[in-house]
Design goal:
It is built from 14 helices and 19 strands. With 406 residues, the chain is of the alpha/beta class. The structure holds ligand PMT.
Length: 406
């Protein structure tokens, strides 16, 4: 969605909670930033702060009801949903988060959230027990998966006298987050397809061959690409990680399933990043029943899997294709050979072994492309992912501008 850089149009939803008073300061700061702010309050919110206050600060009539005769005569809620370039719900109560997750539309604010195409952010505020309740956490996980930004809450003293997580972030911090959110990312609107995690190759109904990949590197890349404005499709092998905020998460198990999931989605993809540790070999035959421990030796016949990365790189209208190289020795030499053999646009090489590369939270990468290289030193996988995504965006833009000038 196109944002007016100087005067972004922000729809600020205020729901019921003591933190609603902070919305006044948030409106003031957003206006000072140059934003146009339309406040929509739930009925409960009006018990904590009056619409008059927010109206005076925003310079626009505050909307509170779906059934407002003057506005609704012209389908006002749909117009508002179209008007908004960003929707921010601050504070977002536990009740409102549940509504948003369920897709209810029984008041103006929930209806707007369902009708708008604008990205949505929520700043939760509630009692710490309500925050920690599995129902609230489950609602948030679903919302994040749908791409909703969740900001906060902060931890500290609460209005109810308890201490813990549940305080709404301060207006100044929310304003900074909104400012960063409005800045167009280098991959704005680009479709990025990422593979992550290990694969499992079945031997029989209870056993499989796999590897040490946790999915952390691939998930961090999905998060970084989404932050850069991309529409991310993540094809993931089995992991224990929370889903990042992607447009689509496809869970697969085997190399064959990963291959099929990628090939079904690669069309119209701008950038493909293969961070998964895909099995190179799979059992030739999957036994239908559990193999019994009857012989001294057990011979497994393995066949090569299809190389997903090489296959994507071979496509006539292929995306900008980035591979990974997991090596235990002669990192740069092997990575450069893979880059050339598979005809890739870029490769990120890392040393792997027990406690290195795989599973751990930190990594370092050697990034190579035709005619260039950059070392990304030891850092958290998310920091590295952000650096790598910035580099990919740079090389992707350079490749496209060279194509255009031909
Ligand atoms: O998941 P983590 O615990 O965070 O660990 C991260 C990581 C070490 C798994 C990751 O950084 C990494 O290196 N991923 C690639 C692992 C790998 O399989 O490397 P490779 O050198 O064997 O394969 C080369 C490339 O071909 C990779 O991009 C791989 O995704 C791809 N490939 C390989 C085989 C196959 N059948 N299909 C493929 O697409």
């Amino acid at each position: 969605m196109q944002v007016h850089p100087a005067r972004p149009r922000i729809l600020l939803g205020v729901t019921g909670g003591i933190a609603a008073y902070k919305a006044a300061e948030l409106v003031r700061r957003l206006r000072a930033m140059g934003a146009e702010v339309q406040v929509v309050m739930t009925k409960a919110a009006t018990r904590f702060v009056t619409p008059w206050t927010l109206q005076a600060l925003s310079g626009r009539p505050v909307r509170t009801r779906l059934w407002d005769q003057t506005a609704e005569a012209a389908m006002g809620h749909i117009e508002l949903a179209r008007w908004a370039e960003r929707v921010v719900i601050a504070p977002a109560s536990a009740d409102f988060l549940a509504k948003l997750r369920a897709g209810l539309a029984d008041d103006l604010l929930s209806t707007l959230c369902l009708a708008t195409e604008a990205p949505i952010a929520v700043a939760p505020a509630m009692n710490r027990r309500m925050w920690r309740h599995p129902a609230t956490q489950e609602n948030l996980a679903v919302l994040k998966k749908r791409g909703v930004q969740v900001w906060g809450p902060a931890t500290g003293a609460q209005a109810c006298g308890e201490t813990g997580p549940g305080r709404m972030l301060e207006a100044a911090e929310l304003c900074e987050r909104i400012r960063a959110w409005l800045r167009p990312g280098p991959l704005n609107g680009k479709r990025v397809l990422i593979t992550a995690g290990p694969t499992r190759e079945a031997i029989d109904p209870v056993r499989f061959l796999s590897n040490r990949s946790s999915g952390k590197m691939g998930y961090a890349l999905a998060q970084a690409a989404a932050e850069a404005g991309a529409q991310v499709v993540l094809v993931s092998g089995p992991t224990a990680l929370a889903p990042p905020p992607v447009a689509e998460l496809v869970r697969v198990e085997s190399a064959k399933e990963m291959y099929e999931a990628v090939m079904a989605r690669v069309e119209n993809t701008a950038i493909f990043i293969a961070a998964a540790a895909v099995a190179d070999y799979t059992p030739a035959v999957v036994q239908p029943h559990k193999i019994k421990k009857e012989t001294e030796w057990l011979h497994l016949e393995l066949v090569k899997t299809q190389d997903i990365l090489a296959e994507v790189a071979r496509r006539p209208k292929r995306p900008f294709t980035v591979g990974f190289a997991a090596e235990t020795e002669r990192l740069e030499e092997h990575a450069r050979a893979k880059l050339e053999r598979k005809g890739l646009d870029m490769i990120a090489a890392n040393k792997v072994g027990k406690g290195v590369g795989f599973e751990v939270d930190e990594n370092c990468l050697w990034v190579l492309w035709p005619g260039g290289a950059r070392r990304l030193p030891l850092a958290s996988k998310l920091t590295l992912a952000r650096q790598l995504v910035a580099l990919i965006a740079e090389r992707y833009a350079a490749k496209n501008s060279a194509k255009d000038s031909r």
